[in-house]
Amino acid sequence: MEHVYTHLVTLLGDKFEVAADLIRPDATLGDLELDSLAVVELYVTLQEEWGVPLDDSEATAELTVDEVARSVTALLDAEKAGGAP
Q1: Where are the beta strands (DSSP E) in 1-85?
Q2: Tally of CA atoms within 13 A in the half-sphere of 66 that contains its CB
Q3: Looking at domain 2-81, which of 1.10.1200.10, 3.90.110.10, 1.10.300.10, 2.40.50.140 is its CATH number?
Q4: Under DSSP, is residue 31 helix (H, G, I), strand (E, B) or coil?
Q5: Contact status, residue 23 vs residue 65, Cβ threshold 8 Å
Q6: Rounded to two decimals, what is the model's pTM?
Q7: pLDDT tens string 45-60
Q8: Backbone phi, then psi, for 84, in 5-degree steps?
Q9: Could you count the other beta carbons within 10 Å of the beta carbon of residue 31?
Q10: What whole-number distance in Å separates Cα of residue 69 and Cα of residue 83?
């Protein structure tokens, strides 16, 4: 999961221009000042980059950075195991 989390932090900083000192595992996407459109864009970007089927209907500003990283990691792990999440 650490690799996914690190990539997510980089993505938030580079694409969404979130200050690095604000990005913590317990910070919500709302805390990082991502509005609902930006949150969906984040999910779409993660889907494209990782090739995982994230459900953007679950993308809300209340999610923490850690929760997003865990969701991606779970999907990647399920894919490696050859099954659906």
Answers
A1: none
A2: 4
A3: 1.10.1200.10
A4: coil
A5: yes
A6: 0.89
A7: 999 999 999 988 889 9
A8: -85, 155
A9: 16
A10: 19
